Every structure is written in structure tokens, then in C-alpha cells.
């Protein structure tokens, strides 16, 4: 079970051109994270890959937001929202979008 960390008022900003990109499997485990995502997350690639995306979830993000995200994706629709994420005592807010990316049997990603 994930233990939510306490929220602080320490917010870290990053340049506008930075794009945080990650992919997950259908169970929400990270299968890819670009270098910007890794850098901003504060975790190493090894600490992120194959771990639950909840690892970077901000403690104040309501579970309903993620239920909405997954319900939207399961309907085959594109999801757009604002997402907060945290690592230790640093908070990041980001515009977030999500869509399904189908991988065909025998293909690699």
C-alpha cells in the first residue's frame, strides 16, 4: 500500500519547453519515461521503470481523478487534465494528457 507523504509549500518549477512523457502498461506500471520526466521526478530511471505510476502521484490528488482518467481511456477517449506529482518534499503541477497506445502482438515499443 502506498504511503502518502506530507505536503509542503516547496514547489519546483521547470522550463516551459520541458515535456514530461511516460507510458504505462494497463496495470499502471511505468514502461517508459523520457529524460525530462526522470529529471523532474527526482527518481532514477531504475527507480521508475516497472513501478506503479502512483510513485510520483501527489498525495492531494484525489483517487477520483485517476478513476476518471482510466474510465475515459477504457472508453477509447483522450483524457486531458491538470496533474500534481510529488517526490519527497517537492511538488510539481503539470497539464497532463493521456491516450491509449495499442501495441500489436510481436511488436516492440
Question: What are the SSEs and their pairings?
Answer:
Elements (H helix, E strand, L loop, with lengths): L21 E3 L5 E4 L1 H7 L3 H4 L14 H12 L4 E9 L2 E9 L11
Antiparallel strand pairs: 1-2, 3-4
Structural description of this entry:
The chain is an alpha+beta fold. It has a single domain (22-98), classed as PAS domain (Beta-Lactamase). Helix content is 21%, strand content 23%. It has 3 helices and 4 strands. It has helices at residues 35-41, 45-48, 63-74, and strands at 22-24, 30-33, 79-87, 90-98. Strands 1-2 form a two-stranded antiparallel ribbon. A two-stranded antiparallel sheet has the order 3-4. It is globular. The mean pLDDT is 76.
Labels describing this entry:
109 residues; alpha+beta; two-stranded antiparallel ribbon; two-stranded antiparallel sheet; 3 helices; globular
Structural class category:
alpha+beta
Strand order of the largest sheet: 1-2
Gyration radius, in Å? 14 Å
Number of E strands: 4
Instruction: Report the total helices.
Output: 3
Assigned CATH superfamily: PAS domain
Strand content: 15-25%
CATH architecture: 2-Layer Sandwich
Helix content: 10-25%
Contiguous low-pLDDT stretches (5 residues minimum) are none
The CATH topology annotation reads as: Beta-Lactamase
What is the CATH class designation? Answer: Alpha Beta
> What composes the largest sheet?
2 strands, antiparallel
**Looking at the structure, what is the overall shape?**
globular
Mean pLDDT: 76
